[in-house]
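Quick note —
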Amino acid sequence: MRPDPLEDVRRVARGYGLDVEPLLALLAPFLPSYLELALDDGGFEIITGGRGVARELASAAASLGLEAPARDAFLLAASRAPEVMVGLKVDAARRAPPTLYHRAMLPLGEGLALLGEVGLPEHVREALAHRLAPAQTLYGLGFSTAGGALRVKTYVLGDVAGRVGFRSVRATAAGVEIDERVYEANADARATGLGCARRAERALGASVLGHVGRSRARGAKVYVERVGAIPTDTSAR
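Predicted structure written out below.
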């Protein structure tokens, strides 16, 4: 049976004691195309999107408080490849600003040049290139804000826990953040030993997780795709 995205979100929200009905009303047009849920110990995030909906997602993000620098950078990226998958991540408890995503799939040099156009200075882009090595492809981009200024999340493929996963490095115009998040693919929920993985298994029946994200600064988060799952192109390294 095809998952009901609205009920999936509601089941997870009940486990955290959160009211998500206003948020669901805003995101309802996108949920039938794509839904991924990201759970941690303190709350959860809703990730949705589609193709050809960049302006609609940017408008939804604006209504949720995402500031113009992130929206403008996202729309510029989306205008260069309007056919690719775009997305929006929203924290159900508003613990962090929304993030707009673009599945860039660009040669690393082209991707870094694009980041120059949205405002990252050359020394920051050079530091990013060093941190993302040996990747040759900028797989995805996320656009959010920190203190009102643009914050960019970069994603590349890499070896994580013995299989192909993702690495993410984040940057602002001030520099590249020290903390790095890694994403282990297709992890056994029980084997992770994580409370948020147990939540995902109870609420969604997810015995295998799409990804487990880990960082030293932010701890762990588990990701479960429910609608419109997108296979990872493992050749794009």
